[in-house]
């Protein structure tokens, strides 16, 4: 199966330098199957008996870090997922610990849409608030049911208190929308200017949330669509088709009061950019078609990317999901093959690197979830193998002696 991936990916790999050592990439946690920290063994066995907990159906998806904790989402894509947001310490004791429901069990047992339904991903702002994207949909890989509207939650990580709940208005959630990813943008020290950019992967839109007045608006653009030929995937011998549009988003450095948002569809080899000053202006929703621009050349066959993030030095890291790899690009250089590199490749630990976030700590670290998602979707997960991992990467060390290495560092 490794040979299959190498053959399929060779076109793109030829465009990158051969840096397949993983000197900067480390595994913090790994699991064969996910478990949760129940109040007691009796509670756990009761949940298993009544079908509320089925380990086979639990998959980690999103990752975030604040200080000495990481946060992991486990969306309710199949029946038997009792918890959809959890936490663990950044100092690992047990290599495969049970996840601790966050902020408490009560938030995962609440009915009538008062708690969490199915969390996809999270983004922490520099003020210590975690913005949580809840799809409101359960059993997406079985018989999808939209129990609640897609909702943005705000959690104060110093007090572990939910301080905001913002359902996305129905007029911005289209039929069959898949609200998948988010990134938080704030330049003010107290986060008073905060905006959240939210991706709709299946109906190809970008939803903007303004925290000052809890307003939403939505952009549509042809660059949010997938590429037909990049919608056909083969990973370790498994062939599948996904037509996911807008997915990965990352924010560049602030310059003269503005900053770029880089973005791409998952089923695509192209990267695009738009100024966030455009996105922050709701009056531009219908007159900004020329503001969304193509960056450089295609990443080529096997160039599909899930998540991406940019560190303080302006280096973008991105998950190459068809290559079991993490790539890099220095955003101060032209977007093209001569300025791309691969900082980590592993045909075991990086099978489908899904989420990637860079924290606010000093020094910074990148956090990655790898989860073999296609195998999970088609019920091909082997419970005797390690399938799910939380990995971390030192971004400065990772780009040493690569074309992504900046000339000057910010810590």
Descriptive keywords:
mainly beta, single chain, four-stranded antiparallel sheet, 411 residues, disordered N terminus, globular, 6 helices
Description:
It is a single chain. With 411 residues, the chain is mainly β. The chain has helices spanning 2-13, 41-49, 106-109, 276-279, 373-377, 395-398; strands at 25-31, 63-66, 69-73, 85-89, 100-101, 119-124, 129-134, 137-138, 145-146, 151-156, 161-167, 179-185, 195-200, 205-210, 215-220, 232-235, 238-241, 246-251, 260-265, 271-275, 293-295, 305-310, 315-320, 325-330, 340-345, 353-358, 366-370, 388-393. Strands 1-28-27-26 form a four-stranded antiparallel β-sheet. Strands 2-3-4-5 form a four-stranded antiparallel β-sheet, with no helix packed on it. Strands 6-7-10-11 form a four-stranded antiparallel β-sheet, with no helix packed on it. The model is unreliable at 1-20 (pLDDT under 50).
Strand order of the largest sheet: 1-28-27-26
What percent of the residues sit in helical stretches (DSSP H or I)? Answer: under 10%
Radius of gyration computed on alpha carbons: 20 Å
Largest sheet, described in full? 4 strands, antiparallel
Structural class: mainly beta
Average pLDDT rating: 93
Summed up, what is this model?
The chain is mostly beta strands.
List the helices and strands and how they pair.
Blueprint: H1 2-13, E1 25-31, H2 41-49, E2 63-66, E3 69-73, E4 85-89, E5 100-101, H3 106-109, E6 119-124, E7 129-134, E8 137-138, E9 145-146, E10 151-156, E11 161-167, E12 179-185, E13 195-200, E14 205-210, E15 215-220, E16 232-235, E17 238-241, E18 246-251, E19 260-265, E20 271-275, H4 276-279, E21 293-295, E22 305-310, E23 315-320, E24 325-330, E25 340-345, E26 353-358, E27 366-370, H5 373-377, E28 388-393, H6 395-398
Antiparallel strand pairs: 1-28, 2-3, 3-4, 4-5, 6-7, 7-10, 8-9, 10-11, 12-13, 13-14, 14-15, 16-17, 18-19, 19-20, 20-21, 22-23, 23-24, 24-25, 26-27, 27-28
């Amino acid at each position: 199966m490794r040979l299959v991936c190498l053959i399929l990916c060779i076109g793109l790999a030829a465009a990158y330098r051969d840096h397949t050592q993983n000197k900067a990439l480390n595994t913090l946690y790994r699991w064969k199957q996910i478990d949760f920290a129940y109040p007691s063994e009796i509670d756990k066995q009761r949940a298993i008996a009544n079908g509320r907990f089925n380990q086979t159906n639990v998959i980690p998806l999103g990752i975030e870090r604040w200080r000495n904790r990481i946060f992991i989402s486990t969306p309710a894509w199949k029946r038997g997922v009792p918890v959809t947001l959890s936490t663990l310490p950044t100092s690992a004791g047990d290599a495969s610990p049970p996840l601790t429901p966050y902020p408490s069990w009560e938030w995962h047992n609440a009915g009538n849409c008062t708690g969490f339904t199915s969390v996809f991903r999270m983004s922490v702002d520099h003020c210590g608030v975690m913005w949580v994207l809840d799809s409101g949909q359960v059993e997406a890989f079985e018989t999808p049911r939209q129990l609640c509207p897609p909702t943005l939650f705000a959690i104060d990580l110093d007090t572990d208190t939910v301080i905001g709940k913002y359902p996305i208005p129905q007029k911005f959630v289209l039929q069959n929308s898949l609200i998948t990813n988010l990134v938080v943008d704030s330049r003010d020290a107290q986060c008073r200017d905060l905006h959240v950019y939210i991706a709709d992967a299946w109906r190809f839109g970008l939803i903007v949330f303004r925290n000052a007045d809890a307003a939403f608006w939505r952009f549509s653009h042809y660059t949010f669509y997938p590429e037909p030929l990049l919608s056909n995937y083969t990973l370790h011998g498994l062939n599948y088709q996904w037509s996911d549009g807008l997915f990965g988003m990352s924010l560049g450095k602030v310059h003269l009061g503005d900053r770029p948002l880089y973005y791409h569809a998952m089923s695509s080899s192209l990267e695009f950019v738009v100024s966030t000053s455009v996105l922050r202006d709701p009056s531009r929703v219908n007159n900004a078609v020329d503001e969304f621009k193509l960056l450089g050349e295609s990443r080529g066959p096997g160039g599909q990317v899930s998540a991406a993030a940019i560190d303080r030095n302006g280096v973008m890291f991105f998950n190459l999901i068809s290559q079991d790899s993490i790539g890099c690009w220095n955003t101060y250089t032209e977007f093209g093959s001569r300025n791309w590199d691969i900082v980590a490749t592993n045909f075991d630990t990086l099978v489908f690197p899904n989420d990637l976030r860079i924290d606010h700590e000093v020094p910074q670290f990148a956090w990655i979830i790898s989860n073999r998602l296609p195998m999970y979707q088609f019920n091909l997960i082997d419970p005797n193998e390690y399938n799910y991992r939380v990995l971390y990467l030192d971004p400065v060390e990772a780009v040493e002696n690569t074309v992504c290495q900046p000339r000057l560092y910010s810590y």
